């Protein structure tokens, strides 16, 4: 083959932006671009090291700040939009990597866990998407396209973890999906770190509709524990609705919670039902239904004696450091399709799989 043309292109490396010739080879009606076809070097392309640096910054701060940090470290400019595109592309790969890892591969040497903790909680992330503006025939001034407007919604993002009860080492999973899907991922993660048919499972969460039921369905031997602070909140809200004076609410609530913690949940239920019969109250009726639903998940003193946690503070704290630290920064609005991949990058870091991900990714690129 001979060089038919040799156009100069710019390529971004960790040492700076370089200009090189990209030869187009030609012979007998066949052409080849070796830089593109064999080395994946394209005009305005980025080396794998640059992609890693950009995504590293891009999952910790806004894309504009990430671009500034890249400039500080490597002394040349890359736009915020380039950081966004690169980070989101890597994030899609991270999402696939995590799903494949926990579903299909297991460490060679697993110490079976005697007791394992599962916690799950949700938080709302601001999302936005463009749609045609209603009740208007306005057009854009240049291309005369229909006017669009941004529609803002808040979407529930769920994060959970599993860990042996005697260890601080966790495996996180997270996504914007149903309880069935996220608990399924938690089940796979639990097997990945040593859950067997003999493992005693302890689940702690709030009273989200369908949450405890799904956890117990997928972990049949689980002792589910209702987060104690959520139960207390329900009692305080009920006391307010019932008109109990503010000064007396604490005594009323703490007395009920103490008795429930001692295993006297049915006695408390009978008292609440009798009170509701004498003076019907919708909020009290809802509390009765709530306590009845979780009556086998409230023996807090017994759980404490066994070394079980009785609150979901561990996963609530993780929400602040894993999804919210990046996805809930001031002013952030995400397209719904971006949330799961970006959360996967955050989870990758939290699970301490960041280095493994890049090593595996480079192996695949070299093999290709």
Note down, in words, how this protein is organized.
By secondary structure, the chain is of the alpha/beta class. The chain is 48% helix and 22% strand. The longest helix is centred in the first third of the chain and has 25 residues. It is elongated and about 95 Å long.
Key terms:
alpha/beta; 5-stranded mixed beta sheet; 4-stranded mixed beta sheet
Give a nutshell description of this structure.
This protein has 368 residues and is an alpha/beta fold.
Chain-wise SSE layout:
Blueprint: E1 2-13, E2 16-27, E3 30-32, H1 34-37, E4 45-46, H2 48-58, H3 63-74, H4 80-104, E5 115-132, E6 148-164, E7 171-175, H5 179-192, E8 200-205, H6 211-218, E9 222-226, H7 228-241, H8 246-261, H9 265-278, H10 282-293, H11 300-305, H12 313-321, H13 324-327, H14 336-350, H15 354-367
Parallel strand pairs: 1-4, 5-8, 8-9
Antiparallel strand pairs: 1-2, 2-3, 5-6, 6-7
Helix pairs in contact: 2-3, 2-4, 3-4, 4-14, 5-6, 7-8, 7-10, 8-9, 9-10
**Class by SSE composition:** alpha/beta
- Could you tell me the mean pLDDT? 93
Q: What would you call the shape? A: elongated
Q: List the uncertain runs.
A: none
Radius of gyration: 27 Å
- In the sheet with the most strands, the strands line up as 7-6-5-8-9
Distance between the termini: 24 Å
Binned, the helix content reads: 40-55%
Number of DSSP helical runs = 15
Beta content comes to: 15-25%
Largest sheet: 5 strands, mixed
Q: What is the number of E strands?
A: 9
Strand/helix succession: EEEHEHHHEEEHEHEHHHHHHHHH
